[in-house]
Amino acid sequence: MDSSSTAAAILPLVGGPANVTSVAHCMTRLRLGLADPSRADEEALRAVPGVLGVVVADDTYQVVLGPGVVTRVTAEFERLTTVDEPASRGAELKAAQRRRNATPLKSALRRLAAVFVPLIPALIGCGILAGLGGLLLNAGWLPGLTPALAAVASAFMALIAVFVGYNTAKEFGGTPILGGAVAAIVVYPGVAKVTAFGVTLAPGQGGVLGALAAALLATCVERWCRGRVPETLDVLLTPALTVLVAGLGTLYGLMYAAGAVSSAIGTAANWLLATTGPVAGLVLGGLFLPLVMLGLHQALIPIHTTLIEQQGHTALLPILAMAGAGQVGAAVAVYVRLRHDTSEHAYSSLRTTIRSALPAGLLGVGEPLIYGVSLPLGRPFLTACAGGAAGGAFVGFFAMLGDQVGATAIGPSGWALFPLLAGNRGLGATAAIYAGGLLTGYAVGFAATYAFGGVRAAAAAAHSS
Question: Are 242 and 229 spatial neighbours (Cβ–Cβ below 8 Å)?
């Protein structure tokens, strides 16, 4: 089924265009705001070809489609809803839905995601090219091409602050281009001539956190001006005052403060892995599935981006990716446990779900297995977390020994992360450690679920409920 057919099949199953209040997407999910979530037919949605799962969160109805596919389906879905639904009605329903579900934590995480998630495709593309360029450089191949690859791969990271500022202003109600203009100060080479708090500033100081803060300040200044500057002068004074006030605030406060925070994040991550590697890996790998389930993993995006900007890679992502390995191992154990039970319809349906979701799970798309298998069963979700903890401890142990494994971009996980790996011991050793972590996660997730998962009883109970 193509993207337009998938979108057309999903729309009536979520209550039609009149029931859709908002349309967005992340790396794998079509995220819908629904005026009346009870009108959605979850069982029918799961049966649509191409749909990997359905997640019902507090403020969104999420249809799991997988990387790449979700972008195309979302575009078609937006076209259908735009054509069929009056804009005023959609805006009214969207505002009502947000008011019902707005809590400070949810709003903050949603807005963080709206700022950083659109940047992920560029991070992935540039990360892969950076890895390819490094491989060619180390091997001494194509010396005439490697400088060009380095320029193509590095340009986005050099200007990422501008994109963060643009998205921040857009999300928080400011003029996007003004947010980008103020955030551009962070990476402008001329800041090296400015001294703040007795310290000469450096281009890029504060990184994405500084850009985020600068754009927020610009949005506040702009909104203050809009209500006070006469309309006849608004077009001239508001942009000028926004850039001036927010720009000076960025230079003489935000860059210094954000630089200190960014440095602390990098130092803390390095210290954590160097001194408590296995323990840190165990905790991070074991808790990541619950964070994904609750949507709290979005809070890690700025941290990953800061580490990539500072060090060229994030050492946290490969450890967190072990949670997906534990999930795969647990799902395989459930399948093996039920492979001889053909009499129960619940068992047969569960095995079918596992067969369809495992390929996505191996590539790091874990939602179908989480919401279709382990979470409904209960105990296998905990044993999957145990597998993630074991894999994280494995990678963390080598980090403590000095063999750090990192990822040059965020988004992919599982086996899809291999092209984005980076480390201090060469690509071969880095890939071997990461693969060892995955295998450890698979093995422990499988063994723990097979031995302690209570699979048959949980499957029967989930079916009866």
Answer: no
The continuous run of DSSP H or E covering 21 comes out as strand 20-25
**Residue in 202, 194, 164 with CA at minimum distance from that of residue 180:** 164
Q: Is 465 exposed, middle or buried, given 0-12, 13-18 or 19+ CB atoms closer than 10 A? A: exposed
How much is the pLDDT for 58? 60
Q: What is the amino acid identity at position 276?
A: T
Q: Which two tokens stand for residue 398?
A: 């080598």
Integer CA distances (angstroms), 353 to 55, 331, 360, in order? 15, 10, 12
Q: What is the DSSP code string of 350-362?
A: HHHHHHHHHHHHH
- Given 26, 126, 225, 385, the catalytic residue: 26
Q: Is 225 one of the catalytic residues?
A: no
Residue 394 and residue 325: Cα distance in Å, rounded? 12
b/e per residue, 437-446, with b = 16+ CB within 10 A? bbebbbbbbb
Rg (CA), the chain: 24
DSSP 68-90: THHHHHHHHHHHHHHHHS-HHHH
Give 314's DSSP letter.
B
CA–CA distance, 243 with 219 (Å, rounded to integer): 10
In total, the chain counts a number of residues equal to: 465
Supply the pLDDT for residue 218. 97
Question: What's the rounded Cα separation, in Å, for the pair 361 and 374?
Answer: 12
Structure confidence by residue, pLDDT tens digits, 134-154: 888 888 899 899 999 999 999
| pLDDT single digits (tens) 402-449 | 999 999 988 888 999 999 999 888 889 999 999 999 999 999 999 999
Of 401, 429, 407, 389, the residue nearest 274 (C-alpha): 401
CA distance 65 to 148: 35
Cα dist from 451 to 333, 371, 389, 455, 456, whole Å: 9, 21, 17, 9, 12
User: How would residue 53 be classed by pLDDT, with cut points 50, 70 and 90?
Assistant: confident
Token look-up 């160097």 returns 274
The whole-angstrom separation of Cα 65 and Cα 60 is 15
Residue 225: CB atoms within 10 Å: 18
What pairs with residue 64 in β-bridges?
A: 29, 53
d(CA 134, CA 60): 41
68-71 CB contacts, 8 Å cutoff, 24+ apart: 69/3, 69/6, 70/25, 70/26, 70/27, 70/28, 70/29, 70/30, 71/25
Residues 6 or more apart whose Cβ sits within 8 Å of residue 280: 272, 273, 319, 392, 396
